[in-house]
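Project outcomes to date are best conveyed with an example. Our students and postdoctoral researchers have been running inverse folding experiments weekly, and each run begins with a structure described purely in tokens. The record below, which covers 376 residues, was selected by the lab manager from last quarter's runs and is presented without edits.
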């Protein structure tokens, strides 16, 4: 059994303990810390094609101080270039950079897991880590997008507290690592200003729009790119030119990838709509911020639907939005019947694990290589 499956099933075991025993929060924090350390180690010693490893390795050995002059039109974004140069000044070794970035990313995620924005995250920290491992391999394969996603989701604590300045700084830092994080700038108004019904309708209409004008969207995006700032313009043109034929190392066909993605989206929307209905109907359920997080997820589904018609690489812009599903799914355990009936809670837990395993199995089969290390 590969290390991918060992981690998955061990997280299932600890998630079971979290849901069905009275383990202390301190013990859960310890579990999350151990896995975070493991993920740092894995990210440091990994060598292979995932996370565009070789492209980033080549960049590290190529980059020089003169690249800092191209703040908005460099090979990679400014903060990522700066991080490479800072490490390179002290140690000219790409593995060291991997270690530094992994420590940063896993530290940010550790804070999200154990001192999360809402109590639902703190009470289900191990289960949420299992979901993130299922969907994104726990962010082990460090890339620019991995760093920006961590910063975007970390900023949600500031969104909840209405601390716009800190939220904006996190978003700006994320943009400094990956251009597509510019989409995250809409999260604050989505969370506080726009009605749920409007976002819900917009998400559904965007999917209808994609089905009707699938072949017209690349041209529309090219017009947007023409009037965008240089950094954004360059990124958009790269994705437009790569087209839907470039699967970025994925093994599944574009048709299957889109069907799989849309089927999952409709399933999640149905589940979250039901949970949102229950929260509104029952005042005794603590549904604080659920609908607002649901708004962020819905915005992600719209971005995913539109971007997938252009390039699978561009659809990465939707990942921080749709990854909020990791914070929404555990709310199912917060329903009154789940608290009263342990057998029913167990059945739901088993179904969720089956769903996660299917997602994980499909991810493993989608171009995931053996976990090769620098020692092999």
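After processing, the design step wrote out the following sequence:
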């Amino acid at each position: 059994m590969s290390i991918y499956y060992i981690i998955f099933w061990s997280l299932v075991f600890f998630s079971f303990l979290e849901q069905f025993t009275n383990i202390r929060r301190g013990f859960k924090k310890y579990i999350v810390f151990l896995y975070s350390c493991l993920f740092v180690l894995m990210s440091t010693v990994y060598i292979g094609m995932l996370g565009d490893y070789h492209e980033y390795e080549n960049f590290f050995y190529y980059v020089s101080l003169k690249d800092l002059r191209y703040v908005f039109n460099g090979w990679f974004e400014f903060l990522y270039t700066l991080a490479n140069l800072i490490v390179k000044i002290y140690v000219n070794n790409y593995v060291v950079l991997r270690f530094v970035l992994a420590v940063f990313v896993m530290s940010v995620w550790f804070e999200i897991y154990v001192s999360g924005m809402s109590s639902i995250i703190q009470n289900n920290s191990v289960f949420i880590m299992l979901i993130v491992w299922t969907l994104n391999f726990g962010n082990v394969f460090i890339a620019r997008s991995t760093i920006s996603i961590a910063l975007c989701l970390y900023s949600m604590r500031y969104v909840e507290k209405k601390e716009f300045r800190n939220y904006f700084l996190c978003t700006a830092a994320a943009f400094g690592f990956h251009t597509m994080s510019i989409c995250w700038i809409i999260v604050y108004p989505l969370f506080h200003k726009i009605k749920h019904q409007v976002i819900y309708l917009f998400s559904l209409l965007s999917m209808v729009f994609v089905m009707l004008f699938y072949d017209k969207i690349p041209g529309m995006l090219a017009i947007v790119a023409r009037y965008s700032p240089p950094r954004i313009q360059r990124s958009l043109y790269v994705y437009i030119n790569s087209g839907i034929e470039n699967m970025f190392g994925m093994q599944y066909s574009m048709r299957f990838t889109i069907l799989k993605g849309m089927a999952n989206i409709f399933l999640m929307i149905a589940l979250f709509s039901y949970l949102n209905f229950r929260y509104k109907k029952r005042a005794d359920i603590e549904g604080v911020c659920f609908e607002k997080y649901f708004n962020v997820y819905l915005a992600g589904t719209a971005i995913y639907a539109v971007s997938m018609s252009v390039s699978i690489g561009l659809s990465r812009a939707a990942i921080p939005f749709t990854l909020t599903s990791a914070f929404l799914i555990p709310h199912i355990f917060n329903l009154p019947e789940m608290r009263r009936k342990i057998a029913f809670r167990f059945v739901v837990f088993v179904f969720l694990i089956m769903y996660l395993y299917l997602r994980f199995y499909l991810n493993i089969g989608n171009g995931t290589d053996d976990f090769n290390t620098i020692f092999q």
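The chain has a mean pLDDT of 85. Residues 3-364 form one domain. The training component of this project remains on track.
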